[in-house]
Protein backbone atom coordinates (compact mmCIF):
# COMPACT_ATOMS: atom_id res chain seq x y z
CA UNK A 1 0.00 0.00 0.00
CA UNK A 2 1.27 3.44 -0.87
CA UNK A 3 2.09 5.72 2.04
CA UNK A 4 1.06 9.34 2.41
CA UNK A 5 4.64 10.50 1.88
CA UNK A 6 5.02 8.51 -1.37
CA UNK A 7 1.64 9.71 -2.60
CA UNK A 8 2.60 13.34 -2.02
CA UNK A 9 5.93 12.77 -3.81
CA UNK A 10 4.12 11.24 -6.79
CA UNK A 11 1.62 14.08 -6.94
CA UNK A 12 4.45 16.59 -6.75
CA UNK A 13 6.37 14.90 -9.56
CA UNK A 14 3.22 14.68 -11.68
CA UNK A 15 2.40 18.33 -11.24
CA UNK A 16 5.88 19.48 -12.24
CA UNK A 17 5.94 17.13 -15.22
CA UNK A 18 2.51 18.20 -16.47
CA UNK A 19 3.34 21.88 -16.20
CA UNK A 20 6.30 21.41 -18.48
CA UNK A 21 4.85 18.87 -20.92
CA UNK A 22 1.32 20.15 -21.48
CA UNK A 23 1.98 23.81 -20.62
CA UNK A 24 -1.65 24.68 -19.82
CA UNK A 25 -0.41 27.27 -17.34
CA UNK A 26 0.70 30.72 -18.47
CA UNK A 27 4.48 31.28 -18.52
CA UNK A 28 6.02 32.47 -15.27
CA UNK A 29 5.90 36.22 -14.69
CA UNK A 30 8.99 38.17 -15.66
CA UNK A 31 11.00 40.01 -13.04
CA UNK A 32 11.49 42.77 -15.60
CA UNK A 33 14.71 43.90 -17.21
CA UNK A 34 17.81 43.07 -15.17
CA UNK A 35 20.46 45.63 -14.26
CA UNK A 36 22.35 46.16 -17.56
CA UNK A 37 25.60 45.66 -15.65
CA UNK A 38 24.49 42.15 -14.71
CA UNK A 39 23.78 41.28 -18.33
CA UNK A 40 27.15 42.69 -19.39
CA UNK A 41 28.96 40.60 -16.75
CA UNK A 42 27.05 37.48 -17.75
CA UNK A 43 28.04 37.86 -21.42
CA UNK A 44 31.67 38.70 -20.54
CA UNK A 45 31.80 35.80 -18.07
CA UNK A 46 30.70 33.38 -20.78
CA UNK A 47 33.43 34.65 -23.11
CA UNK A 48 36.06 34.52 -20.34
CA UNK A 49 35.26 30.93 -19.39
CA UNK A 50 35.76 29.94 -23.03
CA UNK A 51 38.92 32.03 -23.43
CA UNK A 52 40.44 30.61 -20.24
CA UNK A 53 39.76 27.04 -21.42
CA UNK A 54 37.31 26.23 -18.62
CA UNK A 55 34.49 25.49 -21.09
CA UNK A 56 34.45 24.42 -24.74
CA UNK A 57 31.28 24.29 -26.84
CA UNK A 58 29.57 22.87 -23.75
CA UNK A 59 29.19 24.28 -20.25
CA UNK A 60 27.25 27.29 -18.99
CA UNK A 61 27.15 30.29 -16.67
CA UNK A 62 24.15 31.87 -14.97
CA UNK A 63 23.43 34.75 -12.60
CA UNK A 64 20.56 35.30 -10.21
CA UNK A 65 18.22 38.12 -11.29
CA UNK A 66 18.80 41.33 -9.32
CA UNK A 67 15.04 42.11 -9.14
CA UNK A 68 13.75 38.69 -8.01
CA UNK A 69 15.73 35.98 -6.20
CA UNK A 70 13.54 33.27 -7.75
CA UNK A 71 14.62 34.13 -11.29
CA UNK A 72 17.98 33.69 -13.00
CA UNK A 73 19.55 34.64 -16.31
CA UNK A 74 21.26 32.09 -18.55
CA UNK A 75 22.05 31.84 -22.26
CA UNK A 76 20.04 29.69 -24.63
CA UNK A 77 21.62 26.33 -25.47
CA UNK A 78 24.81 27.38 -27.28
CA UNK A 79 28.60 27.64 -26.96
CA UNK A 80 29.48 30.03 -24.09
CA UNK A 81 32.22 31.67 -26.16
CA UNK A 82 29.61 33.01 -28.61
CA UNK A 83 26.99 34.34 -26.16
CA UNK A 84 25.54 37.83 -26.80
CA UNK A 85 22.90 39.74 -24.76
CA UNK A 86 20.18 38.59 -27.20
CA UNK A 87 20.85 34.97 -26.22
CA UNK A 88 20.10 35.49 -22.52
CA UNK A 89 16.87 33.98 -21.17
CA UNK A 90 15.15 34.66 -17.86
CA UNK A 91 14.26 31.39 -16.12
CA UNK A 92 12.37 30.48 -12.96
CA UNK A 93 13.51 28.09 -10.23
CA UNK A 94 11.57 25.21 -11.81
CA UNK A 95 13.79 25.66 -14.88
CA UNK A 96 10.97 27.15 -16.98
CA UNK A 97 12.03 29.98 -19.33
CA UNK A 98 9.94 33.12 -18.82
CA UNK A 99 10.21 34.32 -22.40
CA UNK A 100 11.78 31.64 -24.62
CA UNK A 101 10.83 33.29 -27.96
CA UNK A 102 11.67 30.04 -29.75
CA UNK A 103 15.04 29.74 -28.06
CA UNK A 104 16.06 26.31 -26.70
CA UNK A 105 17.13 26.22 -23.04
CA UNK A 106 20.10 24.21 -21.79
CA UNK A 107 19.10 20.65 -20.93
CA UNK A 108 21.02 20.93 -17.66
CA UNK A 109 19.52 24.23 -16.47
CA UNK A 110 18.33 22.38 -13.33
CA UNK A 111 21.93 22.53 -12.07
CA UNK A 112 21.40 26.27 -11.74
CA UNK A 113 17.75 26.43 -10.65
CA UNK A 114 18.14 23.99 -7.77
CA UNK A 115 21.41 25.50 -6.48
CA UNK A 116 19.74 28.95 -6.43
CA UNK A 117 16.82 27.42 -4.55
CA UNK A 118 19.04 25.66 -2.01
CA UNK A 119 21.66 28.35 -1.51
CA UNK A 120 20.38 31.95 -1.07
CA UNK A 121 24.01 33.15 -0.81
CA UNK A 122 24.87 31.89 -4.30
CA UNK A 123 24.42 34.58 -6.95
CA UNK A 124 26.18 32.94 -9.92
CA UNK A 125 26.81 29.37 -11.08
CA UNK A 126 29.25 27.84 -13.60
CA UNK A 127 29.04 24.33 -15.06
CA UNK A 128 32.08 22.92 -16.87
CA UNK A 129 33.41 19.62 -18.25
CA UNK A 130 37.04 20.64 -17.74
CA UNK A 131 39.21 17.53 -18.33
CA UNK A 132 41.75 18.54 -15.65
CA UNK A 133 39.06 18.22 -12.96
CA UNK A 134 37.62 14.86 -14.09
CA UNK A 135 40.31 12.67 -12.40
CA UNK A 136 39.31 13.99 -8.98
CA UNK A 137 35.71 12.92 -9.53
CA UNK A 138 36.52 9.36 -10.63
CA UNK A 139 39.15 8.42 -8.02
CA UNK A 140 39.34 8.58 -4.24
CA UNK A 141 41.78 11.53 -4.44
CA UNK A 142 40.00 14.66 -3.13
CA UNK A 143 40.51 18.01 -4.84
CA UNK A 144 42.10 20.25 -2.19
CA UNK A 145 43.54 23.79 -1.88
CA UNK A 146 47.06 23.14 -3.19
CA UNK A 147 47.85 26.88 -3.40
CA UNK A 148 46.31 30.13 -2.27
CA UNK A 149 44.39 30.85 -5.49
CA UNK A 150 42.52 27.58 -4.96
CA UNK A 151 41.79 28.44 -1.31
CA UNK A 152 38.00 28.39 -1.82
CA UNK A 153 38.39 24.58 -2.09
CA UNK A 154 39.06 24.67 1.65
CA UNK A 155 35.26 24.67 2.04
CA UNK A 156 35.35 21.24 0.35
CA UNK A 157 34.93 19.85 -3.15
CA UNK A 158 32.46 16.98 -2.64
CA UNK A 159 31.80 14.50 -5.42
CA UNK A 160 28.26 13.98 -6.72
CA UNK A 161 27.61 10.36 -7.73
CA UNK A 162 24.59 10.36 -10.05
CA UNK A 163 24.14 6.60 -9.59
CA UNK A 164 23.09 7.19 -5.99
CA UNK A 165 19.96 8.99 -7.21
CA UNK A 166 19.44 7.86 -10.81
CA UNK A 167 20.76 4.30 -10.59
CA UNK A 168 23.17 2.70 -13.08
CA UNK A 169 21.17 3.55 -16.23
CA UNK A 170 21.27 7.38 -16.39
CA UNK A 171 22.71 9.36 -19.30
CA UNK A 172 24.86 11.31 -16.77
CA UNK A 173 22.98 14.59 -17.38
CA UNK A 174 21.20 16.74 -14.77
CA UNK A 175 18.01 16.78 -16.87
CA UNK A 176 15.36 16.98 -14.11
CA UNK A 177 14.66 19.14 -11.04
CA UNK A 178 15.09 16.04 -8.85
CA UNK A 179 18.62 15.47 -10.15
CA UNK A 180 19.36 19.17 -9.66
CA UNK A 181 18.16 18.94 -6.07
CA UNK A 182 20.41 15.94 -5.44
CA UNK A 183 23.36 17.81 -6.91
CA UNK A 184 22.62 20.89 -4.78
CA UNK A 185 22.45 18.64 -1.72
CA UNK A 186 25.87 17.18 -2.57
CA UNK A 187 27.26 20.73 -2.93
CA UNK A 188 26.11 21.51 0.61
CA UNK A 189 27.84 24.66 1.84
CA UNK A 190 30.90 24.22 -0.45
CA UNK A 191 31.72 26.52 -3.37
CA UNK A 192 32.42 23.65 -5.76
CA UNK A 193 30.94 20.21 -6.41
CA UNK A 194 32.52 17.63 -8.71
CA UNK A 195 30.30 15.41 -10.86
CA UNK A 196 31.67 11.91 -11.28
CA UNK A 197 32.56 11.19 -14.92
CA UNK A 198 31.03 14.48 -16.09
CA UNK A 199 32.52 17.75 -14.78
CA UNK A 200 31.99 20.22 -11.98
CA UNK A 201 29.97 23.18 -10.75
CA UNK A 202 31.49 26.32 -9.22
CA UNK A 203 29.53 29.02 -7.41
CA UNK A 204 30.13 32.56 -6.24
CA UNK A 205 28.55 35.58 -4.59
CA UNK A 206 28.57 37.32 -8.00
CA UNK A 207 29.46 36.54 -11.64
CA UNK A 208 33.08 37.56 -11.25
CA UNK A 209 33.83 35.35 -8.25
CA UNK A 210 31.95 32.38 -9.72
CA UNK A 211 34.02 32.69 -12.91
CA UNK A 212 37.23 33.04 -10.89
CA UNK A 213 36.36 30.00 -8.79
CA UNK A 214 35.71 28.01 -11.97
CA UNK A 215 39.05 29.08 -13.47
CA UNK A 216 41.00 28.16 -10.32
CA UNK A 217 39.13 24.88 -9.87
CA UNK A 218 40.59 23.93 -13.25
CA UNK A 219 44.05 25.41 -12.56
CA UNK A 220 44.14 23.98 -9.02
CA UNK A 221 43.34 20.52 -10.35
CA UNK A 222 46.24 20.75 -12.79
CA UNK A 223 48.67 22.02 -10.14
CA UNK A 224 47.59 19.40 -7.60
CA UNK A 225 48.01 16.56 -10.12
CA UNK A 226 51.52 17.86 -10.99
CA UNK A 227 52.49 18.18 -7.31
CA UNK A 228 51.27 14.65 -6.54
CA UNK A 229 53.64 13.27 -9.19
CA UNK A 230 56.60 14.70 -7.25
CA UNK A 231 55.68 13.31 -3.84
CA UNK A 232 53.55 13.92 -0.75
CA UNK A 233 51.83 17.31 -0.99
CA UNK A 234 51.46 19.99 1.71
CA UNK A 235 48.07 21.68 1.26
CA UNK A 236 46.76 24.90 2.75
CA UNK A 237 45.40 24.15 6.20
CA UNK A 238 41.78 25.17 6.99
CA UNK A 239 42.83 28.44 8.64
CA UNK A 240 45.11 29.47 5.77
CA UNK A 241 42.38 28.68 3.25
CA UNK A 242 39.67 30.51 5.22
CA UNK A 243 41.84 33.60 5.66
CA UNK A 244 43.01 34.08 2.06
CA UNK A 245 39.83 33.07 0.22
CA UNK A 246 37.81 36.27 0.94
CA UNK A 247 40.84 38.38 0.06
CA UNK A 248 41.07 36.77 -3.38
CA UNK A 249 37.34 37.34 -3.91
CA UNK A 250 37.69 41.00 -2.90
CA UNK A 251 40.47 41.50 -5.47
CA UNK A 252 38.68 39.67 -8.29
CA UNK A 253 38.75 42.77 -10.54
CA UNK A 254 42.49 42.33 -11.09
CA UNK A 255 41.85 39.05 -12.87
CA UNK A 256 38.48 40.04 -14.31
CA UNK A 257 39.75 43.17 -16.07
CA UNK A 258 42.63 41.25 -17.67
CA UNK A 259 40.52 38.22 -18.62
CA UNK A 260 37.72 40.41 -19.94
CA UNK A 261 40.05 42.46 -22.15
CA UNK A 262 41.53 39.29 -23.61
CA UNK A 263 38.22 37.50 -24.15
CA UNK A 264 36.22 40.43 -25.52
CA UNK A 265 39.11 41.60 -27.67
CA UNK A 266 39.27 38.23 -29.37
CA UNK A 267 35.56 37.71 -29.88
CA UNK A 268 33.60 40.84 -30.63
CA UNK A 269 29.84 40.28 -30.81
MN1 LIG B 1 27.25 18.90 -18.39
In short:
With 269 residues, the protein is of the alpha+beta class. It has helices at 4-21, 36-51, 110-118, 134-138, 163-166, 177-187, 207-230, 238-250, 252-266, and strands at 60-64, 71-75, 88-92, 124-128, 159-160, 192-195, 199-204. It is globular, with a radius of gyration of 19 Å.
Structure description:
This protein has 269 residues and is of the alpha+beta class. It has a single domain (4-266), classed as 3-Layer(aba) Sandwich (L-fuculose-1-phosphate Aldolase), CATH 3.40.225. It is built from 9 helices and 7 strands; from the N terminus they run ααβββαβαβααββααα. It has a 7-stranded mixed β-sheet, sandwiched between helices. Helix 2 packs across helix 9 (252-266) and helix 3 crosses helix 6. The chain is globular. The structure holds manganese (II) ion. The site of manganese (II) ion has 5 residues, from loops. Manganese (II) ion is lined by residues 108, 127, 129, 198-199.
Structural topology:
Blueprint: H1 4-21, H2 36-51, E1 60-64, E2 71-75, E3 88-92, H3 110-118, E4 124-128, H4 134-138, E5 159-160, H5 163-166, H6 177-187, E6 192-195, E7 199-204, H7 207-230, H8 238-250, H9 252-266
Parallel strand pairs: 5-6
Antiparallel strand pairs: 1-2, 1-4, 2-3, 4-7, 6-7
Helix pairs in contact: 2-7, 2-9, 3-6
Structural class by SSE content: alpha+beta
Strand order in the sheet with the most strands: 3-2-1-4-7-6-5
The amount of helix comes to 40-55%
Average of the residue pLDDT scores: 92
**Span between N and C termini?**
59 Å
CATH architecture: 3-Layer(aba) Sandwich
* Topology-level CATH name: L-fuculose-1-phosphate Aldolase
> Which ligands does the model contain, each kind named once?
manganese (II) ion
Q: Tell me, what is the CATH class?
A: Alpha Beta
**Unreliable runs:** 1-19
Topology, number of strands: 7
Shape: globular
Number of domains: 1
> Looking at this structure, what is the CATH superfamily?
Class II aldolase/adducin N-terminal domain
Amino acid sequence: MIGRRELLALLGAGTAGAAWAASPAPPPASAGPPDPKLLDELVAGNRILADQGVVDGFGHLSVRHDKRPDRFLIARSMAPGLVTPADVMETDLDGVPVDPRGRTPYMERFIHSEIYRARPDVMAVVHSHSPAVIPFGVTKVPLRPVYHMASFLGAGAPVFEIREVAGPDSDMLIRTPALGRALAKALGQAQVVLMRGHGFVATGSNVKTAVMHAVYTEVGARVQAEAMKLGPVTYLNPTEAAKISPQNDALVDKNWDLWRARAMGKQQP
